[in-house]
Description:
TIM Barrel; eight-stranded parallel beta barrel; 8 strands; lyase; Aldolase_TIM; PYR_CT; manganese
Amino acid sequence: MFKLMDVTLREGSYVVNNALTKSESKKLVHELNKAKIDLIEIGYLGNISRDSGVEKCDSEYIDFLTNGEILNWEGKFSVMINPENFSQSTAEILADRRIGMVRLTVTKNNLERVKEIVNSLSKYNIAISTNLIRVSRLGHKELNELVNELVDTNTDIIYLADSNGAMLPEDIKKMFFSLKHLIMKKGGKQKLGFHAHNNLGMAIPNALVAIEVGCDFIDASILGYGKSSGNLSLELLLSLMRRQNFIYKWNITKILSLANQLTTVVRKSGFYLSQPEGAIIGMKNMNLDEVQEIYKLKGISSLLDKENE
């Protein structure tokens, strides 16, 4: 059976007017733990210029989330590293027993830096994941070249992230089959992960295909809360799996209750207002850097303004 990672906290930091308060974040983490979700991504490793929290996961933040407890929290958290912002001075938090995984975003432009960081993190007793982002923009040759390089590192997991929310189930199947073949061919032992976005409403179909082809880790968030049109909805995935008679350990009742409690909070944010623009982003297979560039060039605040010109 695959493992589930909740990404609500980190992905929520991208939402316009993110409405998750610190107290709500703590409650979220505790309820996810009670529901036996395997991993909870709490934010970025960050840098010393940031305040303690999602943008800088430090001891203060982790102690806040767990009330200073370690028992029942060992290996529960994951943190993300943006390689361009990585500093060895902030990495010591990875020795905290409550952190079970660290993930790095990977592109063809930062590959060498990622390899250096992965090597430096090998001393910590945690799983290392390299997350290939914006994979809907990668051709077969580009994907193979990146994966070939990553298999030769100490990374434990290779993720495919549909950052633009533009992928279809047939794309997922082809990419994961190619990925598995390359890893086996090189004698690698890396596990596989999938991170979906829901711009075209394909997060659930894509995730089901990833599970079908043997993916080991699946990312999801409560109510799909996250960047642009959001992510794979944790409560919908578990409900659909139960409808299909999947047997699993996760507590669907607690997850549905948590989703219901967070509905009011999410409505206070700009999350649902992002859905129409998110569809454009998925349809045109755009990334957020390109979107921001259009905003700047056209003097607009939404791609919908551009579409209505």
